[in-house]
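FIELD: query
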Amino acid sequence: MLLKEIKRIFHKELEGIYPKEEVNSFFYILIEHYLNIARFILLLDPELNISKREEQPLFEGLSKLKLETPIQYITGETSFMDLTFAVNEHVLIPRPETEELVQWVISQYSDKHGKNSDLKILDIGTGSGCIGVTLAKHFPNAGVYALDFSKKALKIARMNAKRNGVMLGFILADLFEIGELDTIFDIIVSNPPYVRELEKSQMQKNVLEYEPPEALFVRDDAPLVFYEKIAQLAVRNLKNGGTLFLEINQYLGEETKEVLARNGFVELEIKKDFFGNFRMLKGNWTTEIKDVG
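FIELD: result
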């Protein structure tokens, strides 16, 4: 069948579900992923024909898209900070705002310590490993550790570390059962669950029905429970002068900031993401007693 005919079928079947440009994007992602055919090749050769065997994964992908399966779960991979990560239903699909969090860490610590510093970094709730792997890639001499309670998530994170040529220390542990870790860190970073149940109505079907709910949602009556526990752990495991970086719920910025302040963090800063939402928070840890007189 001609590829342009398959593209026409994609539009016919999907345009009631997705915008036209998104359908185009899905089609080109799938032909590049399964057939190694870049978009410009089809533009140069609009009469390009493919075999029945080559058609099969495209139509299987189309069927999944009709059910609103995320394209990243169909191809099994996604891009994050110019690196490629394997993803499946056991891990969240990395978001652009998380890239901004990682960029913030890199900008702060590249300036202070340089790229080749032997930093100690902990990524709490690593999921796909996108945060920890990217930081290990950028700081090649750092000791980066990735913690998650899910064996299935850590399996994906290990795969992504190997895929991107970095070594991480992996910790299988429940955040709510950890007392103290064996390492003292320069940086602790986390993108924990922070979406309240009441916010589900704002979310799309492809998120609600496919991404792991335990990595997304918190109870309405305890929306900051992960931040409380992360702050307590950070107090015990950050070095003097270390920094805690967090992705946060845009509606709970001040409340999350108060959690850190209550646990003794100083020089607190909330940062907006590209869309103008308060999405990142950092606080410094110090053991020094300040003169308040």
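FIELD: remark
DSSP finds eleven helices and eleven strands in the chain.
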